[in-house]
């Protein structure tokens, strides 16, 4: 950790768009369970909502339905993740509950050199993320 | 009518009675025969009547002719029949069927008699190609008729018998004088396979592929093009969510050995820092990463491209003495190999070929050596074999491993006396498999297990894996092996290869992958427990693999050879497995297990552009030859799907990267590829009847099969110049003062070039220290040479690959209205419309250049290859603004100037045919030639002759062509990649309003509909 931070300050000082190109790497992710949903900003909101609903409802006769799903949102998509979770809850007549967790995700930015003499560098950037657990409760 | 049709007809008529088949006696009075027999020529014969002299002359001529060659006569007669048939159908004027005035009874009767006899003959002998029982009517057919003669009606039995005998004889001739069983026996099969791969190289997975793929012969190899199962979408899914496996062993590897400085010095003129990093990039030079570079002919940078290559430097184990001998592998596409190898040899001054027997292993050995070589492993394996079948002591046939086509005496290494560099061609010496997709980590870690360290010192030299025992004696290398193993195990916890620094190299020594093969094909899933080890993973992701872990024994030729030779055969392995006490339990070979050095190279996926980062990333795995199937099957058994050449095209298309031979129109291999493609497409087009294929002339598509890049670039150059000239001359408007100012430096004046070279010098001065000396002299050279280029080879095409300019272009190509952040960025950095002044230095340097662009369709439509990229007009924008659902304008129908010509030609031909018929023997030789040649040139629906101005042929001005285009499943819409003229692109961008900047029109070659697309230059 410490040795990672150290060059970082030095890098920022000498960063020059002529010498480096910034390439953002994919965020590190864990293997997906079937009830994990990663929300993005590209897919249509309604489609994502329907996908969650489908997971909760299960098939035609209610088989394969998950009792809980996890909705993950990173950065800009946090808003949307919250929105989806609340919509699900609102549409369930009280049978669904939500529990939210927040976390910080480390993202890696790669700096590709434009000249032969420089080494490629990496920077770590933090971004917030939200993990919402949507689960069924027995209606009273 | 085509020649083939005529031939077919002649064949059909071969055994038919013709009313002209008279015995030679009849030929004498052919003139009269026409009176009686053929009604058609009555007219003409009558005309001849008043000149008995001439007819007599002809008669005598005929008599001279007739006995010479009955075959010719028959042919010509059949031709007459045929032409007559044509005449009947078409020309009404030829059918003057009048009742003859008189009939000579004797000749008439004789003619009829001849006809009758011919008819009888025809009836008795079977004319068609079919067998007797096939000619029977359906209700008379019986089961197994072809097999059993007695099932036929008695009258046909004799003929059937004959036929059956004939068939048997024929079959015997065809057969390989061995029964099916003998042919299938292993030895004979290997012999047969060896024979078959003499012409085209087979990959080691060839047999596997041949059973499941459509195979093509390309580039001297037999390659799988696409799977026979329907799997386009499945392969895409495998690339995005699972794992796609490809055999890339056909890629060629060139090895350069020598001092580091010498190699760098020799290679530096072949690449330019302007187009990306070179061989000297620090992280590549240390051996930590794979690099990629575009090669040019020495010192010809913007022009005369040779092709893209990737390269790996062997990492130095001891970084203290750097100037020692280094090894560099250059991997390239087989189509580029010839050119690049020649250029490399010239650049390194490697002229002296090394005798193949001295340095290179494998198939290059002479036969005597090969024998001794094969005997060595046989002694070990043979013992085991003898236990099983003791009688057989035949020496097993050696399977061809590696390049079977190469001449053993042809040199494959060259040394230079001056620089000490050795270039060797390592084609087919290694296998290269590519795994694409997020599951490739799990598959790799599941299928491969690091080799166990072997410490017990056995009888050295004789043991098969002697090298590994030696290595294990060294504690340093053992610890290195353990570190490599640890990193390899970490990979299992990373869910996508895109998370690892691009081009990472990891060396490893693995055990035999066949040993822990699962009993059934299964699908691996990432193991969540492995994903926990956080700190180490983090370090790997941030810093990549340490330099020393990139070391692998695969760089050592001797070890590779040893590994190839000491492979336990599949048969032995299976036998041992069957001898296990508990069936299905783990096989332990102990010290006899092979250790295979491998090299893993991370392949970055999509690196350009903003969306779908890292799509299609994966790992390449290199291992010694001979082990292809041993690695192939375990990967497949872990759930990898296999793709062929078509899938690799799809991969590069979705990655928006240029496909290797096809998308490099400025390199010789690309030109050859385009020609071949055009030829194939033309053939395919001609196979369809004219009414069932698009008439490209009417659609206004000048070049549907090939892209006339040179003409395009040239026309745009003259077009822009012409645009500027009249405006300077006449108009007083504000914009033109601008252009007038720009007009001045348009001609390549000397000060201008000086200015450029200065600029080049400053931009390059920030370059690396060892290259500094070269670079300072380089711009001057470039500058002077550029002037020379302008004069001499100015017409040569080039593709803009300067990163600086491409970046500039990509910002110019426009703030798209959707992507607001990009818009803000563009406006913030002060990038307004590309003014003429700003583009000028670019246009100066590259007057006839192309730019690689990607296009995304706004609405529906999926583009095809060779689609045209056009500039929209003001009116199109207006309609687009008014109607959001406006698809695009339509091209109006063009007139076909060739149609009438073709019709005329046809008529002319018809007339000639008719004349031929009237005087068959005299005219045939004379009239046959020229119309046939003329007919060849014209094809209905294609533009013939030199193309007129391509840019302004249609209603919208042409900007470029699409080279790859399809519905992209990754985007969910049409996507295309192609080249546009740089001059045209800048001209278009400078005139378009800011909101619609970067919008172009796309039109498929076989459609009149234009569709809107957004252009983007991705760096």
From TrEMBL, chain A:
GO terms for molecular function: ribonuclease P activity; ribonuclease P RNA binding. Transmembrane segments: none annotated. Belongs to the histone-like Alba family. Its main location: cytoplasm. This is Ribonuclease P protein subunit p20. One of its GO terms (cellular component) is cytoplasm. The gene is POP7. The keyword Nucleus applies. Component of nuclear RNase P and RNase MRP complexes. RNase P consists of a catalytic RNA moiety and 10 different protein chains; POP1, POP4, POP5, POP7, RPP14, RPP21, RPP25, RPP30, RPP38 and RPP40. Within the RNase P complex, POP1, POP7 and RPP25 form the 'finger' subcomplex, POP5, RPP14, RPP40 and homodimeric RPP30 form the 'palm' subcomplex, and RPP21, POP4 and RPP38 form the 'wrist' subcomplex. All subunits of the RNase P complex interact with the catalytic RNA. Several subunits of RNase P are also part of the RNase MRP complex. Keywords: Cytoplasm, Nucleus, rRNA processing, tRNA processing. The keyword Ligase does not apply. It is found in: Cytoplasmic granule; Nucleus, Nucleolus. Component of ribonuclease P, a ribonucleoprotein complex that generates mature tRNA molecules by cleaving their 5'-ends. Also a component of the MRP ribonuclease complex, which cleaves pre-rRNA sequences. GO terms for biological process: rRNA processing; tRNA 5'-leader removal. The lineage of its organism: Eukaryota, Metazoa, Chordata, Craniata, Vertebrata.
From TrEMBL, chain B:
Residues 15-24, 750-768 have a biased composition (Polar residues). Residues 618-709 form the POPLD domain. Residues 66-76, 368-381, 388-409, 891-925 have a biased composition (Basic and acidic residues). Its main location: nucleus. GO terms for biological process: tRNA 5'-leader removal. Residues 849-1019 form the POP1 C-terminal domain. Keywords: Nucleus, tRNA processing. Residues 1-78, 361-413, 718-770, 888-932 are annotated as: Disordered. This is Ribonucleases P/MRP protein subunit POP1 isoform X3.
């Amino acid at each position: 950790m410490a040795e990672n931070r150290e060059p970082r300050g030095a890098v920022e000082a000498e960063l020059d768009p002529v010498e480096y190109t910034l390439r953002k790497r994919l965020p590190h992710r864990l293997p997906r369970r079937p009830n994990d949903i990663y929300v993005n900003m590209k897919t249509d909101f309604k489609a994502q909502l329907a996908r969650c609903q489908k997971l909760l409802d299960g098939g035609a006769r209610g088989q394969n339905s998950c009792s809980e799903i996890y909705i993950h949102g990173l950065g800009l998509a946090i808003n949307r993740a919250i929105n989806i979770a609340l919509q699900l809850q609102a549409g369930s007549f009280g049978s669904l509950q939500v529990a939210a967790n927040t976390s910080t995700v480390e993202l890696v930015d790669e700096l590709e050199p434009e000249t032969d003499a420089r080494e490629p560098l990496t920077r770590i950037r933090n971004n917030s993320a939200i993990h919402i657990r949507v689960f069924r409760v027995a209606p009273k | 009518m085509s020649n083939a049709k005529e031939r077919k007809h002649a064949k059909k008529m071969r055994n038919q009675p013709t009313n002209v088949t008279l015995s030679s006696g009849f030929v004498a009075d052919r003139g009269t025969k026409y009176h009686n027999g053929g009604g058609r020529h009555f007219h003409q014969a009558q005309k001849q009547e008043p000149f008995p002299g001439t007819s007599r002359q002809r008669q005598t001529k005929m008599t001279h002719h007739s006995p010479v060659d009955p075959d010719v006569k028959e042919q010509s007669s059949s031709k007459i029949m045929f032409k007559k048939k044509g005449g009947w159908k078409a020309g009404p004027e030829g059918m003057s069927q009048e009742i003859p005035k008189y009939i000579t009874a004797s000749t008439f009767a004789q003619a009829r008699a001849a006809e009758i006899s011919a008819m009888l003959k025809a009836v008795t002998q079977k004319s068609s190609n079919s067998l007797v029982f096939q000619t029977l009517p359906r209700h008379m057919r019986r089961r197994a008729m072809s097999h059993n003669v007695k099932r036929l009606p008695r009258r046909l039995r004799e003929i059937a018998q004959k036929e059956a005998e004939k068939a048997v004889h024929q079959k015997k001739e065809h057969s390989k004088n061995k029964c099916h069983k003998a042919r299938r026996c292993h030895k004979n099969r290997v012999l047969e396979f060896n024979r078959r791969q003499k012409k085209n190289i087979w990959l080691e997975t060839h047999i596997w592929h041949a059973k499941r793929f459509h195979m093509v012969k390309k580039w001297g190899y037999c390659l799988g093009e696409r799977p026979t199962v329907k799997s386009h979408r499945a392969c895409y899914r495998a690339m995005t969510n699972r794992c796609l496996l490809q055999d890339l062993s056909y890629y060629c590897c060139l090895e350069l050995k020598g001092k580091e400085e010498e190699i760098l010095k020799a290679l530096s003129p072949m690449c330019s820092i302007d187009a990306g990093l070179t061989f000297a990039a620090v992280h590549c030079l240390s051996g930590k990463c794979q690099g990629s570079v575009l090669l040019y002919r020495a010192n010809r940078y913007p022009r005369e491209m040779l092709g893209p290559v990737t390269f790996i430097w062997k990492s130095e184990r001891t970084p203290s003495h750097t100037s020692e001998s280094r090894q560099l592998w250059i991997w390239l596409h087989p189509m580029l190999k010839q050119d690049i190898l020649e250029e490399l040899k010239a650049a390194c001054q490697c002229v002296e070929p090394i005798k193949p027997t001295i340095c290179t292993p494998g198939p290059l050995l002479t036969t005597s050596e090969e024998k001794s070589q094969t005997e060595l492993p046989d002694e070990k394996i043979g013992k085991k074999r003898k236990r099983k079948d003791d009688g057989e002591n035949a020496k097993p046939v050696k399977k061809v491993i590696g390049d079977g086509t190469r001449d053993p005496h042809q040199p494959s290494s060259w040394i230079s006396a001056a620089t000490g560099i050795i270039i060797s061609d390592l084609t087919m010496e290694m296998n290269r498999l590519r795994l694409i997709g997020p599951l490739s980590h799990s598959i790799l870690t599941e299928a491969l297990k690091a080799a166990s360290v072997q410490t017990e010192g056995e009888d050295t030299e004789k043991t098969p894996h002697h090298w590994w025992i030696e290595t294990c004696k060294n504690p340093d290398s053992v610890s290195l092996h353990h570190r490599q193993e640890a990193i390899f195990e970490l990979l299992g916890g990373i869910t996508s290869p895109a998370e690892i620094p691009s081009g990472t190299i990891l060396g490893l020594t693995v055990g035999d992958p066949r040993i822990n093969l699962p009993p059934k094909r299964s699908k691996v899933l990432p193991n969540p427990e492995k994903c926990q080890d956080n700190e180490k993973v983090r370090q790997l992701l941030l810093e990549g693999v340490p330099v020393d872990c990139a070391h692998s024994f695969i760089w050592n030729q001797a070890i590779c050879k040893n590994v190839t030779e000491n492979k336990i055969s599949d048969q032995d392995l299976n036998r041992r497995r069957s001898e296990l006490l508990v069936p299905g339990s783990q096989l332990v070979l102990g010290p006899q297990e092979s250790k295979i050095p491998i090299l893993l190279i991370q392949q970055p996926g999509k690196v350009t552009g903003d969306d779908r980062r890292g799509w299609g990333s994966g790992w390449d795995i290199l291992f010694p030859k001979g082990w292809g199937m041993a690695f192939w099957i375990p990967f497949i058994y872990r759930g990898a799907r296999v793709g062929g050449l078509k899938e690799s095209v799809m991969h590069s298309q979705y990655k928006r990267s240029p496909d290797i031979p096809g998308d490099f129109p400025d390199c010789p291999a690309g030109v050859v590829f385009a020609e071949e493609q055009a030829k194939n497409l033309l053939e395919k087009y001609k196979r369809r009847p004219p009414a069932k294929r698009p008439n490209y002339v009417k659609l206004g598509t000048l070049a549907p099969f090939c892209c006339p890049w040179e003409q395009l670039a040239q026309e745009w150059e003259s077009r822009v110049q012409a645009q500027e000239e009249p405006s300077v001359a006449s108009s007083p408007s504000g914009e033109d003062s601008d252009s007038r100012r720009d007009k001045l430096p348009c001609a390549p004046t000397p000060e201008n070039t000086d200015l450029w070279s200065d600029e080049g010098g400053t931009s390059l001065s920030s370059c690396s220290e060892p290259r500094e000396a070269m670079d300072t002299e380089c711009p001057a050279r470039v500058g002077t040479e550029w002037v020379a280029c302008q004069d001499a080879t100015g017409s040569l095409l080039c593709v803009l690959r300067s990163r600086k300019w491409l970046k500039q272009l990509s910002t110019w190509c426009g703030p798209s209205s959707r992507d607001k952040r990009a818009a803000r960025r563009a406006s913030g950095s002060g990038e307004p419309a590309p003014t003429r002044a700003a583009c000028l230095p670019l246009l100066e340097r590259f007057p006839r250049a192309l730019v690689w662009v990607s296009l995304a369709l706004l609405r529906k439509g999926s583009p095809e290859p060779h689609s045209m990229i056009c500039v929209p007009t003001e009116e199109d924008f207006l309609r687009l603004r008014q109607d959001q659902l406006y698809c695009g304008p339509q091209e109006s129908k063009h007139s076909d100037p060739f149609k009438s010509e073709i019709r005329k030609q046809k008529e002319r031909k018809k007339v000639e045919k008719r004349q031929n018929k009237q005087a068959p023997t005299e005219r045939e030789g004379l009239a046959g030639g020229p119309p046939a040649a003329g007919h060849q040139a014209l094809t209905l629906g294609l533009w013939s002759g030199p193309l007129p101005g391509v840019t302004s042929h249609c209603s919208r001005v042409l900007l470029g062509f699409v080279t790859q285009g399809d519905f992209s499943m990754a985007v969910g819409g049409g996507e295309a990649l192609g080249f546009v003229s740089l001059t045209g692109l800048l001209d278009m961008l400078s005139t378009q309003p800011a909101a619609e900047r970067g919008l172009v029109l796309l039109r498929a070659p076989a459609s009149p509909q234009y569709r809107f697309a957004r252009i983007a230059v991705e760096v």
